[in-house]
Amino acid sequence: MNLLYLYFSTIRHLKFSQIYHRIFRHFSRRIPVPSSSLEKRENFSPRAFFEKKKSILNKNSFIFLNQKEELNLPNDWTSQSHSALWIYNLHYFDGLLSSKTSLDLKLSLLERWISENTNKLSVGWDPYPLSLRIINLIKFAWLNNIEKDSINVSLAIQARYLSKNLEKHLLGNHLLENAKALIFSGVYFSGKEPKKWLQKGIRILKQQLEEQILDDGGHFELSPMYHSISIELIQDILVLCCTEDCPRILKKEEISLKEYLDKMTKWLISMTHKDLEISYFNDSVPGIASKPYDLIKRSERILRKNFIKEENDFIYLKDSGYIRVENKDSLLLFDVAPIGPKYLSGHSHADTLSIEVSLFSKRVIVNSGTSVYEEGKRRSFERSTEAHSTLTINKKSSSQVWASFRTGRRAYPKLITKEINKDSIYIEAEHDGYSRIFRKLKHLRKIIHSENSISIEDNIIASKSTPFEVNFFFHPGVSCKINEDRMGGELSLSQSTISWSVKEGSCFLSKSEYAVGFNLLESNDCLTVVSPLGKKTIFELSW
Prior knowledge:
eight-stranded antiparallel beta sheet; alpha+beta
């Protein structure tokens, strides 16, 4: 019964269209597509695209997600011995955009893929890797003036297949990539069929941007990593818009796309640490999306403006739910956000009311990040509340995250008050995520951010006493020392020393692991503040 209720709690948030299309795609993937070629559009070859990191080492050696593998092709195109995400990366063909791989090797591998991946039910034809490969292939052809019939025939087949197999069962960032691939295909080729792809891609893009990009500029999946990917998506389409002889139907979208890019870039700036890397809320980790600095500079070139960071101690991204508080020495990011859109929470973590803190431009308090997508112990931990710098009860999560990408009942946060005073900023917020376990229980977090200190008070509002713990994870570059009285200590980072203390509650120090990238973990310290009687805890940093 518990399992049935978990499924019900998950499925009830889905749109009817998602359920319908999940059933429909089982049959649509078996519909054959014509194998005829199309004419390439003349005098159109945009070139202002990002180079990709090296991923092809030689004809059988690849490195993705920080894992190098020797493959036995063609069998390993669909290898079961590697993670699904690693195999997806194999089929993206990002290496086509690497200057560190020879043109001959790129063409050789591309021809192999075309001849050895004819089964359209295989992983290489899943709509997401299909979309990314179409885009990479078209960029590669433009950048290198490639004129090969075999590549153009394959591109036409891939675009036809994608147009009939859009990811309407998933929606979100996947459908945006589908739309981008249709737009690229519709611009690359000329004729009636490509024009229909272009029209369909633009229509989906407009609909999805209106739905997925919040008024404050955030992408609605509330992951800084996927937000960054969405920025690059818009930037790439704007490269097409700004190219001479761009089709008029696409050129008309330029102003609207620039407006989206402007507010999305501002959001990225607000959610970036002082080390110029993204914050770790929901599925986020460096090395997947382009670096924030590169994206911001590219936005500046496209929009012909400079993004000068506002001298603002307090930024509340109201529609997303994130809060940024900073002064000359410190930065605090506070998650008062829902875990994501109701019908799409696959990249959500149970991280409600978690915080990240930087001091002297170095990360100090962190969330544990994302190192895997494969279902298992590590994925379960990384999505759990226990992996984040916030309060936990009985080692349960504030939202029912399960499997790799599923969420049942979820926490609903609320910003109660914010006070911006001359010497400090006070924030108070709560969530009801644990009320499904303890009737009417709420987690209340109060933060006071001053010039030389940050105080975090946690409490629960409940009808009876309920023990709880509060985790504070430290960056691997931070060494935590605890005093003999176990009520305080020091944090050492680079040239700086920060004092910490526990004003209410008791504490202990343990070891954990922090994701510095996919499949890359580093040891770090975790300080756990305990309230065995369910009374408030107060943790303070001072410098």
